[in-house]
Structure of Dihydroxyacetone kinase subunit DhaK:
Amino acid sequence: MKKLINAAETVLEDALAGVAAAHPELAVDVANRVITRAVRPTAPKVALVSGGGSGHEPLHGGYVGPGMLDAACPGEVFTSPVPDQMLAAAKAVDTGAGVVFVVKNYTGDVMNFELAAELAAEEGVEVRTVLVNDDVAVEDSTWTAGRRGTGATVLVEKIAGALAERGAPLDEVAALGERVNAASRSFAIALTAATVPAAGKPGFELADDEIEVGVGIHGEPGRRRERLRPARELVAEVVETVLTDHHLTAGDEVIALVNGLGATPLMELYIVFGEVAARLAGHGITVARSLVGNYVTSLDMAGFSLTLAKADGQLLELWDAPVDTPALKRA
Amino acid sequence: MKKLINAAETVLEDALAGVAAAHPELAVDVANRVITRAVRPTAPKVALVSGGGSGHEPLHGGYVGPGMLDAACPGEVFTSPVPDQMLAAAKAVDTGAGVVFVVKNYTGDVMNFELAAELAAEEGVEVRTVLVNDDVAVEDSTWTAGRRGTGATVLVEKIAGALAERGAPLDEVAALGERVNAASRSFAIALTAATVPAAGKPGFELADDEIEVGVGIHGEPGRRRERLRPARELVAEVVETVLTDHHLTAGDEVIALVNGLGATPLMELYIVFGEVAARLAGHGITVARSLVGNYVTSLDMAGFSLTLAKADGQLLELWDAPVDTPALKRA
C-alpha cells in the first residue's frame, strides 16, 4: 500500500487538520468531526447537513459553504458517521427553520441518520431527510437495500442548497431535494480498485485488462467484469444504460456530471465527457450544464461515473445560483 | 495500460472535443489546437498565453478565462506545442497591447516559444516571455537546462493574469510574472510513475515501497529513491528543502500550493497540507493563502508537489482578485 498518510488509525483526524488549515472559511470541530461554515447565516434559513464515510472527497466537507451545505459529518474511511456527529451538526446549524439531512442510500448511513433525526426531534430540531439513490447498476448491493447513492448527491446538495439559501421553508427544500434525486441516474466503471488504509490492500482484484462495470463507490460489485474497451464503447454502454432506466427522450435537457473516482487523469475525463456529449446529441438530448472532474471519489480508484439529471427551468436556475465552497464555486 | 481513451493517437483531439463540449465559456480551435476565451475582452489589454505538453491538466486550458489566461496551446502528451500554435494563439488574442508568453522551463518549450515570439514580432505582435523555473530538485534534468518549471506556473498565471485584467502595460505584467516566479520554489515526490498513452507502460519503475524524491512532472529523475515514509516525515524533508533554497524566515507569509500529480486522493493531499502548515508554523512562517488539489498533474502519477511563494501585499491582493476559469474560480 502506497499512501501519503501518517498511520491508518489517524487518517480522518489528520485529513481534518488539513481541511482546517486550508480553509479558514470553514469551521472544523475535530473532536465532534463536524465541518460547518465559519460565518453562519445571519437570517433564519433551512440548514442542509450531509455526511458519510470518508474517502469520497471532496464529498461532503468540500461542499460546505454559502449556496450549498451548512454542515458535513465525515465518518471513518468508507464507514458511516455516528448519530452523535449528526446531532451535533444539526444543533450547531439549526436556526429554528429546521434541518434537511442529505443521506446516500447505504444501510449504515440510513440507520444512523434516522436515529439522529429522532434525537434531534427530541431536542426540538425539526428534520427532514432526502435519500439519494441514483445508481442504476444494481438493485441491492453489499451495503445497500435498494439502489446506491452516488453522483446525484452533488446535484441534490447544490440545487436544494440554493433554494434553502433563498429562505424557502423546510418542506419545500426537502421536496426539491427529492425531486432532484428522482430526476437523476448514475452508472460507474472501475479500472482499478480502491485501497482502504486500514485494510492495506485493494478491495478487489482486476486483471490488467479487466474492468468492473457498474461498480459502487466503495468498490461494491457491479453487473459484471469484462475487458477494457475504447472509451467510446464504454461510454456508449453507460449512456444507453442510464437512458433506458431514465426514459429520457429527444428534446430533453440534462445536467451531466462526468466524475472521476480519484485516480483518473482529468484528460481522460474530458475524453469521456466528449463521448458522452456526442452520444447524447445522437439521441437529441442536450447537455444544458456539466461538471467534469473529481466530485464523488473512491480513494485511489481509477474509473469514472456518469450522472444525468433531467433538467428544467427551476433546476437550471438554481444550479446556476451562486455557490462558494472549497470544491464548487460560482459567482 | 488501463486508460479511458479511444486510441493513443487521438488522445489530444478527443480531449479537446471534451473541453469544447464541457466549456461553452471557452473557444476551442481543434485544428490549430488553441483554447481561448469565448468572450474576448472588450477593452485593449495585455494577453497572457501559455502552453505545454498535454497530460498536466488542468494546466493550461483549465486556466483560460477572465482574470487569468487569454489562450492556451496544448501539445501532444508530454510534448511541446509547436510555434505555429503559439503564433496562432498570440494573433488571436492580441488587442494591440502585446502578449506575455508564460513558458515552463523545458528545452522544447523554450525553443518553440522563442521562435513563436520572433514570428509574432514579424507580424507586429509585441511579445514578452516569462520563464517559470521553480523546481529546486535538480539543476539540470532529462528535458531541461536549469531548473524545471512546475507548480509556480499556476501562481504566475493567476497573479500576472489579474494585473493584465486591470489594464497594466506589457512590461509591467511581464515583470510581475517574473517576480512571482522568483518568489516561488517547488519540490515533488512520486509514489508511482505516469504512463504516457503512446508508450503504453510506466515511464519508470518503483518498487512497492519505493518513492522518487524530487521527481519532475514528466517523470524526470529526482535526487534519489528511497523507502516510503509517513507523510509527516516526507513533508518535513520537502519543506526543509524548499525553505533552505528559499531563504524564508520567521515572520514571512507564503502562498502554499499542495498539488496532486493526478492519482492521489484529495484526502491524502489534505493530510499533506496539514503537515505542511504545521511544519511552517514551527518556523514562524504563516500560510496566508493556499490551494489543495490537482492543479499541475502528471497523468496518472501518484504523489504530490509543494510550491511556496513568498507573499507580499501586492501578490496577495492580486491572488485574491476575481478569476473565472474552469479550474480556478473566485468571486
In short: Chain B touches chain A through 64 residues (CB under 8 Å). Chain B has a mean pLDDT of 97. The helical segments of chain B are 11-22, 83-93, 107-122, 152-165, 170-182, 231-246, 266-282, 313-319. The CA atoms of residues 135 and 186 of chain B lie 5 Å apart.
